[in-house]
Design a protein that fits this description.
It comes from Sulfitobacter guttiformis. It contains 14 helices and no strands. With 238 residues, it is mostly helical. The mean pLDDT is 82.
Length: 238
């Protein structure tokens, strides 16, 4: 029996998501620094991270706040970026939807990009896992992520401008999302959605208040859905 098979689902989730520690630390620190530079207090910054707990939406809202965008634009943009969480929830429902309410509520709060990617990949590879095992694995996958997100958001907010620009913490943002999306390119629909989103985001870069990202996201989802429908009609979809 290997050491991997001896691990409980919770411990295996921790192991499988641990590589994200390398990027979540600078990612959270950068948000704390930028929030402090934008004039948010430490308490406001921590409340932002604890309540929203979605890095992409937080950075989007913070950038728009710095651009003095109307409050309604800030809210709509942050909600649009976080629409992916609704899709994550729908994707997770067949796997953990029958868990007790309190477990589903906890998993809903702790659904972040990293826990979703690691969790769904595991559930698809091992369809025989029981619901309690899936919940345990999912909670294990988020264990190295969320506490560090809180901690280093706080450290970034406290240190603020004391962190040298030469550290270039912003490298963590693209690396984090590249690490998450690469394993998800399993079908032609995924690839088309990503390519269309990238192209449209570049073409719409001049749209005010970063709304070009929303347009690109919608275009990517539509392109991916249409590609999947086309493949199904042709009998090519898996």
């Amino acid at each position: 029996m290997t050491s991997t098979t001896r691990k409980t689902p919770y411990r295996q989730g921790i192991v499988d998501s641990s590589p994200f520690i390398l990027v979540i630390i600078p990612f959270a620190s950068l948000f704390g620094v930028l929030a402090a530079e934008a004039g948010l207090s430490v308490i406001e910054t921590m409340a932002f991270s604890i309540v929203v707990i979605a890095g992409a939406a937080q950075f989007t809202a913070l950038q728009l706040m710095q651009e003095n965008a109307p409050t309604v634009i800030v809210l709509i943009s942050a909600l649009a970026v976080n629409l992916r969480m609704a899709m994550y929830s729908a994707s997770l429902t067949p796997y953990i939807g029958s868990a007790p309410l309190w477990q589903r509520a906890l998993c809903a709060y702790l659904t972040v990009d990293q826990s979703y990617v690691v969790g769904v990949s595991k559930f698809e590879r091992e369809p025989d896992m029981t619901v309690p095992q899936r919940v345990a694995y999912f909670l294990g996958a988020v264990t190295p992520i969320v506490p560090l997100w809180y901690l280093f958001t706080y450290i970034g907010a406290v240190l603020g401008a004391q962190i040298p620009q030469s550290w270039a913490l912003d490298f963590a943002i693209p690396i984090t999302f590249l690490a998450m999306i690469a394993p998800m390119f399993r079908t032609a629909a995924h690839v088309v959605a990503a390519l269309v989103a990238v192209i449209v985001s570049l073409l719409a870069a001049g749209v005010p208040y970063s709304l070009g990202l929303m347009i690109a996201g919608i275009a990517g989802m539509m392109a991916g859905a249409q590609t999947e429908l086309w493949l199904e009609r042709k009998g090519l979809a898996k």
